[in-house]
Amino acid sequence: MPNAMKRLKRVVFAICLCLAVFFLSSTMTATESGLGLKADFGILPFQVLSADHVDSGGQKGGSVVVMQEPTPQDLNRGFIEQLNAVELKIVSNIAWVLLVSTDNNNLGTSDDGTYIKPIDDFQLRAGVGPYISLSQKSQKLMEGSPGVLIPSIDYKLLTDSDTFHPGNYKVEVIYMITSL
CB within 10 Å: which end of the chain, N or C, has fewer? Predict the structure, then answer.
């Protein structure tokens, strides 16, 4: 699989190079003093997002999160927190915004089947910013300038010692970068 990915990247690079040459439109114009050359070119927007060193090959990537069982301290505190839960790598030649969403409508059902954990009990943040609750609607997690950035994402699962129901709670977080 890695060799196939390398070959695919080489083919994509070759195609991009050919397109760049094609878009370098050169025109010759006749003038009284001789020939003139005019060259116009443009640099196309480029964005790549990868999670935990796995190249998604594009602007969108995902991460499945399985939350651990809370400790008594987690239940007293009201949440389970996983600092630096996932590391992203963002490469862009234009200003960008990182959006997060999920296709899941809940985090799963309790072991006894009597409770469905709401999706908004799962929160995340980039760096030291405020946590936001995950939803099926895309939300801005952070934004940045052209270049390479490697942000760490923290996860938090809200718990309550009075209402917590043991279960296998998990969610797929979808990350997407787009231009500002």
Answer: N
